[in-house]
Amino acid sequence: MFSFFKRKPKEEAATAPAQPAAAPLTAAAAPPASLPETASADSQPVLSDAAPEQKRSWLSRLKSGLAKTSSSLTTLFIGARIDDDLYDELEAALLTADAGVEATLFLLDTLKKKVKDEKLTEAEQVKTALKALLLELLTPLQKPLELGRHQPLVMMITGVNGAGKTTTIGKLAKHLQVHQQSVILAAGDTFRAAAREQLAIWGERNDVTVIAQESGDPAAVAFDAVASARARGTDVVMVDTAGRLPTQLHLMEELRKIKRVIAKGMDGAPQEVLLVIDGNTGQNALAQVRAFDDALQLTGLIITKLDGTAKGGVLAAIAKTRPVPVYFIGVGEQIEDLQPFNAQEFVDALLQ
């Protein structure tokens, strides 16, 4: 079920620049027998017999999580006339769904042009056209997480308090193990004892080493974790960091320091800088993406908690104003509730 990581083909990996003094690739970095080597982004992984049922369950939960927004959008087209009133109601619905002003105006202007050019006369045709535009807007955000390119792959995980960052790290660690990747976790949130304890619990649950200190410099913890991974030939290092608001400038500077120190421990690291976002925070999520991207040059996003009051439109806002790839989305607390972002599935859930 968790076949969502794009693995670098052997021949491409062989020509990639070697990391200075990095440990050689271990056997664990080779593709598992159950998964084909991915030659292109279009290659499809082999799924287990239980995958179709699990997939249906996942899609059902995603649709349920986005049901409120879906209802407000789809009901507009029931028996509607294609006129200014429909466009006004659609504008209000998109703004309420957290799509933001820029994405909303872009979608409306493009939709009106499409309706005119294609001479659409039925409301259902307009709805289909809107789905196509949303899919076109969101598809560039869809990107797989690659394994096997770096040894180790160092992932720095950031986000504000309450976004589900530490829990997400635990889920990802388990998924990586399913793909035969050895993992080390770095408890870089040295300000909050509960965060270290929570990460330690995930480490015990997944039988993963956790590098931690009772107190001290989080950058030093990250450095030690990278050094340990290189010495052991570990495949992936995941560095937890303290949750903070983008307005806390001194703490944002500390994140920059952690990133610099990691780079000293391994040239080119961290290769992935991920921001975990609570899907319920609406336009605040876009502000977080801007701030953390400006500070750290994000490589990907993980959007959690799309299982309650989340409106989902914020992905459109992100795609239009700060198109950082969305690696994963989450709809619940279970490990299987975190899945790779698929634009087609998301749009289908949003406009059922």
UniProtKB/TrEMBL annotation:
Residues of the SRP54-type proteins GTP-binding domain: 325-338
Name of the molecule in the record: Signal recognition particle receptor FtsY
E.C. no: 3.6.5.4
Keywords assigned by UniProt, alphabetized: Cell membrane, Cytoplasm, GTP-binding, Hydrolase, Membrane, Nucleotide-binding, Receptor
Alphabetical list of HAMAP family matching this protein: FtsY
Presence of keyword Nucleotide-binding: yes
Main subcellular location: membrane
